[in-house]
Task: inverse folding
């Protein structure tokens, strides 16, 4: 445009030819005035002032003095930027804004607050080393209760989701018992295979009776008979059941609350369709997950067989460093109070090993204690056999 104007063409004609406002042609002609085209400055200039305005040193001193006064004399004990701005506004006409006061305090090092240290979260399944390393799969189970079909029965739902593969399952029932849980687990594992770990909360339908020592429930015996390690998460602890609790919420939102169900059968059909579609969508993720074992075709559950294998309990120590496992109290360490431990009940080696767990350092899980333990040999007397 500048070259055309210098060649004798009018600025208005150049503006029409380049389809730009006349003011833009005038601007660039003025920018290049007195210079060769190759020497002119064609880059955009910042609209910011060359010398940004800065609060005077006197104003900064006033702000710092106000902060010192409020810190020592304020009835409310507030001496932040908002309090300083209100204090100065009542006494002076030229009061800086809250943001300016904040910058002054930051520049002068007069901020007492400490930035929150954000650490990266531990990997999924961090409390089980082979799960965290994605060498083993974990199926997490939980129940949804308190659902009532209009003019129908109360509904309880058993849900499952695999940690790495994202394979889900849901079984609505009128009254969910330990016998039902065993039936659903066997049905699920026959279709998709056995994981290395199965995780539960401390519901008696999963863990067994709480009022008796050394109680090994029906679901635990099922897992042990199939070579699956049952894992019981600590009560009232967040994070361990995050995957299954997330799926519980999705199932309730996408299946239960989204439709009106005329009967339990209609709910089961809707839930089955959702589960199948969910598995289809996550098929690639499931294929990339750790391999599963096939459930032996000749396997039969014998509840009277002595349990063999490992049972894991994630627990938090007391203020004295003790922990309760299978109705028994073990003294772990006075140096490890109110902290997480993984208790590995070895039914073959007749001992319990306690490992330290820290979310901040998930790779470091030292052995704290090895205690002798032998599960009493007594017949299983569960109901509904």
Result:
């Amino acid at each position: 445009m500048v070259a055309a104007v210098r060649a004798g063409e009018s600025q208005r004609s150049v503006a029409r030819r380049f389809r730009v406002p006349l003011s833009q042609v005038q601007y660039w002609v003025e920018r290049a005035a007195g210079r060769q085209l190759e020497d002119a400055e064609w880059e955009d200039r910042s609209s910011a002032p060359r010398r940004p305005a800065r609060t005077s040193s006197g104003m900064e001193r006033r702000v710092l003095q106000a902060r010192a006064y409020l810190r020592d004399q304020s009835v409310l004990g507030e001496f932040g930027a908002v309090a300083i701005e209100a204090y100065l506004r009542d006494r002076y006409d030229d009061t800086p804004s809250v943001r300016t006061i904040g910058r002054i305090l930051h520049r002068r090092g007069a901020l007492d607050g400490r930035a929150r240290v954000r650490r990266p979260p531990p990997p999924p399944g961090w409390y089980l080393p082979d799960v965290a390393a994605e060498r083993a799969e974990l199926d997490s189970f939980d129940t949804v209760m308190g659902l009532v079909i209009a003019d129908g029965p109360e509904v309880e739902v058993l849900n499952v989701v695999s940690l790495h593969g994202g394979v889900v399952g849901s079984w609505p029932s009128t009254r969910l018992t330990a016998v039902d849980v065993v039936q659903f687990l066997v049905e699920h594992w026959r279709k998709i295979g056995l994981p290395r770990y199965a995780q539960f909360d401390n519901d008696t339908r999963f863990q067994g009776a709480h009022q008796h020592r050394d109680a090994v429930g029906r679901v635990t015996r099922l897992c042990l008979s199939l070579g699956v390690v049952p894992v019981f998460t600590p009560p009232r602890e967040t994070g361990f059941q995050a995957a299954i609790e997330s799926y519980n919420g999705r199932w309730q939102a996408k299946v239960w609350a989204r439709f009106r169900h005329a009967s339990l059968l209609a709910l089961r059909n809707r839930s089955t369709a959702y589960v199948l579609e969910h598995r289809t969508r996550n098929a690639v993720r499931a294929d990339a997950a750790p391999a599963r074992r096939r459930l032996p075709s000749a396997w039969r559950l014998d509840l009277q067989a002595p349990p063999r294998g490992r049972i894991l309990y994630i627990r938090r120590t007391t203020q004295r460093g003790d922990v309760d496992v299978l109705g028994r109290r073990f003294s772990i360490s006075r140096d490890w109070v109110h902290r997480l431990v993984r208790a590995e009940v070895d039914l073959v080696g007749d001992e319990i090993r306690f490992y330290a767990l820290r979310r901040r350092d998930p790779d470091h899980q030292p052995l704290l204690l090895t205690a002798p333990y032998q599960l009493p040999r007594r017949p299983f007397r569960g109901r509904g056999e």
Remarks:
- The mean pLDDT is 91.
- The chain has three domains: 2-39, 65-107, 122-385.
- Residues 122-385 form a domain with the Nucleotidyltransferase; domain 5 fold (CATH 3.30.420.10).
